[in-house]
Amino acid sequence: MAFLTIHTADGADTADRRAARYYGPRMVNASSDYQSLLARSGFHDIRAYDLTTEFLRISLAWERARERHADALIAALGEARVREMRSDSRLNIEGIRRGLLRRSLFVATR
User: Fold this and answer.
1) Which of 7, 37, 76, 104 has the greatest number of C-beta atoms within 10 Å?
2) Are 54 and 47 in contact (CB under 8 A)?
3) Residues 101 and 92 sit within 8 Å (Cβ to Cβ)
4) What percent of the chain has pLDDT over 70?
């Protein structure tokens, strides 16, 4: 099995997990240890690859593109939706920069 996920940084305390939920995408899991979950589910040879640097680079590129194409996005999606997307994007970027959010690729076999 292989999957990508956005999650809190390893070792995050309660305050950091709460902050990660604020800064992260709505689906961010702020409490799970994916390696333990996979092991308990019968998977082994579990490997995690930190892709956070790429996550930040891509998030910044998306935000620049949304800014560059704001008029077309507003025409297609409406001003409220574009404003929400841009706000979410800026929060995600800030969460990554604060070290609260990580993007990881998990690979495991059964």
Assistant:
1) 7
2) no
3) yes
4) 96
Name residues whose C-beta falls within 8 Å of residue 12's C-beta, 6 or more positions apart in sequence.
Answer: 20, 30, 100
pLDDT tens digits, one per residue of 23-70: 988 777 666 688 888 999 999 999 999 999 999 999 999 999 999 999
**CA 23-67-97 angle, 5° bins:** 30
Distance CA 100, CA 27 (A): 14
Residue carrying structure tokens 């194409």? 69
The Cα–Cα gap between 77 and 94 comes to 24
Report the amino acid identity of residue 75: A
Tokens read off for 20:
């990660």
CATH 2.40.50.100 fits 2-109, yes or no: no
Residue 99 to residue 13: CA distance in whole angstroms: 12
Distance of CA 95 to the CA centre of its chain: 9
